[in-house]
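DM between two lab members

TW: hey, do you still have the Cytochrome c-type biogenesis protein CcmH entry open?
JB: yeah, one sec
JB: this one, 154 aa:
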Amino acid sequence: MKRLIFALLLVVMPLGPSLAVQPDEVLNDPVLEERARELSKGLRCLVCRNESIDESNATLARDLRLLVRERLVAGDSDDEVIDYVVDRYGEYVLLQPRASGSTWALWAAGPIMLLLAMGIALMYLRRRQSAPEPADGAGLSDKEKARLDDILKK
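TW: and the structure you got?
JB:
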């Protein structure tokens, strides 16, 4: 029974994104429809957050899909469609934000933090290597050494 459910999930799961686009949204021209689908994959659903409008069933995602198709039918290029949507909804609508202006800090933060962490790790390892090795039982009084030996024998 578990295998049957798993097999059904494997068949049904890939259909999720394709079921989001309603039949009345699909353009008659297959080339324009393919362009619309590609553009929709890069636009964020503002309701679902990290889901593209191509995958989302939200009403706003449907409106955005229709807007993209409307602009394509009007003769806009892919870049013009994206610019129109960004002008209307802001940079947040892009799943892959552009590396410009204020987003440079966000794009650079990851690599900078990685380099910083690697530098700190390297300094730690070098200091650890150059530190003198502690002598066995160093710093213990004779009484403490006897007590430790007593504990270890038990």
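TW: got it. Helices lie at 2-12, 15-20, 30-41, 59-73, 78-89, 104-130, 142-153. The longest helix spans residues 104-130.
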